[in-house]
Amino acid sequence: MSPDAPLLTWRDPRHYDHRGDRPCVLCGRPTPLRSHQGEPAHKACAERWAGDHPGDTRFVSDPPGRARIHA
Ligand SMILES: [Zn+2]
Fold first, then answer.
1. Cα of 5 to ligand 1 centre, how many Å?
2. Averaged over 2-30, what is the pLDDT?
3. Rounded distance from Cα 13 to ligand 1 centre (Å)
4. Positions of the region Disordered (predicted)?
């Protein structure tokens, strides 16, 4: 993996589709994960794609701070 490949934060439950697996738009293998746009994609595949497309917002991390509501 490129050292420049970003690590995405996908902690929000909306990234997990309980309705089941769908083919990843990047590698074609089944995944229950969804991007912010609802595209089926493995997190690792999305990270690789983001590393290959710097500046593009197709795959992004969750906004910071959302998980700290109870802090
Ligand atoms: Zn994939």
1. 15
2. 91
3. 18
4. 32-71
Count up the domains in the chain and report the number. Answer: 1
CA of 21 to the centre of ligand 1 (A): 11
Residue 65 domain flag: no
Q: The domain containing residue 25 runs over which residues?
A: 1-53
Assigned domain for 34 exists: yes
**Would residue 64 count as lying in a domain?**
no
For residue 24 the two structure tokens come to 């990843």
Measured in Å, residue 70 CA sits from the centre of ligand 1 at 33
1-15 pLDDT tens trace: 555 678 999 999 999
**Centre of ligand 1 from the C-alpha of residue 68, in Å:** 29
